[in-house]
Design a protein that fits this description.
The chain is of the alpha+beta class. Helix content is 29%, strand content 38%. It has a single domain (3-104, 150-190), classed as Roll (Pnp Oxidase, Chain A), CATH 2.30.110.10. A 6-stranded antiparallel β-barrel has the order 1-2-3-6-5-4. It is elongated. Bound molecules: flavin mononucleotide (FMN).
Amino acid sequence: MNPFVKIQEWLNKETELGSYDCNRVILATASKKGIPHSRVVAIREINEQGVLFFTQRGSRKVVELNENPFASMTLWLPAQQREVILDGHVQTLNSHENIDYWNALPRDRQLRFNTYGPTSGKIIHSLTELENKYAELSAHFHQQKIPISESYCGYRLIPETIYFYTLGTETFSEVVRCKNMQEKWLAEMLSP
Ligand SMILES: Cc1cc2nc3c(=O)[nH]c(=O)nc-3n(C[C@H](O)[C@H](O)[C@H](O)COP(=O)(O)O)c2cc1C
């Protein structure tokens, strides 16, 4: 069984059933002291290489992933009452890859990222501060290419174990665990 094919099938079905923004996952990290924290991130790509997401260098998740690269992602598919849990470690993208993905972003996203990226997670007094900065940057880069924000960074979660959980309403829930055995994935059914 190829778990990435199965994830894609579940995602396609979720979209067919009317869910939107199915590319959001809960990303859990832990500090080196083992203190956990989780948040939503958008998946940019999901394939055999792993799950790609982008974030800001100053953020808590980046600090924690630098200290402890082990992380867990949960993809919740409400229309099907299913979840996919991916446990593994992260790798950072190299600067060329970051630039390629940056160049593919719409201009507005690039401007917004340059606006909040450097101060991400820091205290601000109102959104007006960011709106003013956005307007300044927009005027400054008028009809020019917007340079990559120093804060922009991509990570790939490389899963070692993937759990597929289907909630049973009138029957038992089904749980399948897929373990990465280097050459292939080992799929085993677990009692729910
Ligand atoms: C729908 C949604 C999508 C989000 N997507 C991202 C994302 O792709 N990358 C990101 O860094 N933060 C994203 N966020 C914000 C994070 O959930 C989080 O609040 C922020 O990154 C700070 O996280 P941290 O302090 O734990 O590092 C998103 C939030 C929501 C509600």
